[in-house]
Write a structure and sequence with these properties.
The structure is a homodimer. By secondary structure, chain A is an alpha/beta fold. Chain A folds into two domains: 218 residues, Rossmann fold (3-Layer(aba) Sandwich); 66 residues, Rossmann fold (3-Layer(aba) Sandwich). Helix content of chain A is 43%, strand content 15%. The first copy, chain A, is built from twelve helices and nine strands. Chain A has a six-stranded mixed sheet, sandwiched between helices. In chain A, helix 3 packs across helix 7, helix 4 packs parallel to helix 5 and helix 11 packs across helix 12. The longest helix of chain A is centred in the middle third of the chain and has 20 residues. Chain A is globular, with a radius of gyration of 18 Å. At the A-B interface, strand 1 and helix 11 of A face strand 1 and helix 11 of B. Chains A, B: It comes from Hoyosella rhizosphaerae. Chains A, B: It is an enzyme of class 4 (lyase). Chains A, B: Its cofactor is pyridoxal 5'-phosphate.
Chain lengths: 322, 322
């Protein structure tokens, strides 16, 4: 399988520039003091549509446009951030978007699709409905993670992290990346292992949703044995993909799993300490730094670590539990 | 009265560089679309201690240090952000801090003082207790807004806004500044009216707490006739100061008042749209853009306006109402 290269990501970055935010690289002094590390946060909650997903969706459409194959519309399935990302990408380029979402999706996610002109089809069979829609309308599917163009788009997060670190004279010893299907860590890994090979790329999954870890252990994509509930709903992929598995095999230093209780605590503390509205998925990196020994991840005290905050789309009612 | 100059603010900026965050200047596309303006946010919730106040407190201590008069300790009174700012400034320079806080102050504010080694004295008479503490311990008072060093420190917010705007080729047609005692707008006004005179400096108060507006109308500092409750607790100054009044007279284009209900709505929407944890005080600028006609503030559609988000110290339980 051909892997995404840093050149693919650089091209993606040039394509995306007019449409996405170059999010800042923020220091997190409270977390740094607590953990005896230099903790930095890459706040993709501040990204258009509230998550990094817009990078991959837009890069896919822009790549198709460059090659003269931009369709009149696209379909996708998503309960969350990919839905809004596709809607925004479509609206930006004048492409219709039809999005299969589960019955009973939370209102804020629905609003975030309608805001960008997406058409929602509610269903209990996301993939089946998406396939039917694709056939009926003649629109291609824009997958949430397992496409090279999506991976290259997500990789621009890594490009920005390294550029901003260099600009401020900051070393990056490790990047901790939330992992669902693995698109984000695939892209970040491709960049980091090319431009800063000694930087550790660490993937963090919920123990309730460890599809990429399972695939790495099995050496092939496997289905999760059960769909367990997770507070980190943004990471709830039922399986990894062939592309993301291959990238993880090539570019990821280690994968770790964190407990649901650690994610819940880390989420609250991350919002409090960073003053960023992030969703629970964004807090798995902090959970890992607390729940797993530094040595097990190849880290030691004093190192400079980046926590990628993947998104900020969360129902405010959940803050009531804080 | 001598006014703070842009040179004073530049000196403050050099002093503060090792201790404070140069917060980014963020675009707010959802608010821009809603308001038909180009809305930018200066997120001082991301500042050390969670508010801009640390700039003024640190500049005061650093100025005293430069002149060889750094005391062994300082006292201050505050129910909120100034308390943590003084504690942080003191800890940074090895100066004891004794802080008079009201009985029943919220736990997060108390924690934010203890985190930086401040000593808290609970009292129902903030100013009286602070005066006594100052006399007993022989420590000078570090006032929340009405000191030139504090105003110069807060002015660095304005310096950063203009520098980042220039760096990105962004015009700044207006800066909307939350106003309590007036320290922040005094400093920002000094910078803006020197470096970008055509940029409008607009102060926004809650109608429940309009001390600076009253002083400007009266031509002298006057006490608020009544202490009305306000959701924007960070702006609840009982009176402006002689220094801040003089700066407002010289540098502020207009002052407006917004209703409590407009602040409440703007607060929720600002958190949702920007994905920043901001306190209600930070949302008065958005409330003004919605509640007051643009023309009344000298604005028109398409202009580029900066909302200064003054801080992010808020009890999460309040998000439950969202």
């Amino acid at each position: 399988m051909t892997l995404v290269t840093v050149e693919d990501v650089r091209k993606a970055s040039n394509r995306l520039a007019p449409y996405v935010v170059h999010t800042p690289l923020l220091r997190a002094p409270r977390l740094s003091t607590e953990l005896d590390l230099r903790v930095l946060v890459k706040p993709e909650n501040l990204q258009r549509t509230g998550s990094f997903k817009v990078r991959g969706a837009l890069n896919t459409l822009l790549s198709w446009q460059e090659s003269g194959s931009l369709p009149r519309g696209v379909v996708c399935y998503s309960a969350g951030n990919h839905a809004a990302a596709v809607a925004y990408a479509g609206q930006s380029l004048g492409v219709e978007t039809v999005i299969a979402m589960p019955h009973g999706a939370v209102q804020s996610k629905i609003d975030n699709v309608h805001r960008f002109g997406g058409e929602i089809v509610e269903t209990d069979d996301l993939i089946g409905t998406c396939n039917s829609l694709s056939a009926e309308r003649g629109f291609p599917m824009l997958l949430p993670f397992d496409m090279p163009e999506v991976i290259a788009g997500q990789g621009t997060v890594g490009l920005e992290i390294l550029a901003d670190a260099v600009a401020t004279g900051t070393a990056v010893d490790a990047v901790l990346v939330p992992v669902g299907g693995g698109g984000l860590i695939s892209g970040i890994g491709a960049v980091v292992k090319s431009l800063s090979p000694r930087t550790l790329v660490i993937g963090v999954e919920s123990e309730a949703s460890n599809a990429l870890g399972l695939a790495l252990n099995a050496g092939e994509v496997v289905d999760l044995p059960a769909r367990l509930p997770t507070i980190a709903d943004g990471l709830a992929a039922p399986r990894a993909g062939g592309h993301t598995l291959a990238h993880a095999q090539a570019y990821v230093n280690c994968m770790v799993e964190v407990s649901e209780s650690a994610i819940t605590r880390a989420w609250r503390d991350m919002v409090d300490a960073t003053k960023l509205v992030v969703e629970p998925s964004s807090a798995v990196g902090l959970a890992a730094l607390r729940e797993i020994s530094l040595a097990d991840m190849g880290l030691r005290a004093g190192m400079s670590v980046v926590l990628v905050a993947s998104g900020g789309n969360v129902d405010f009612s959940r803050f009531a539990d804080f």
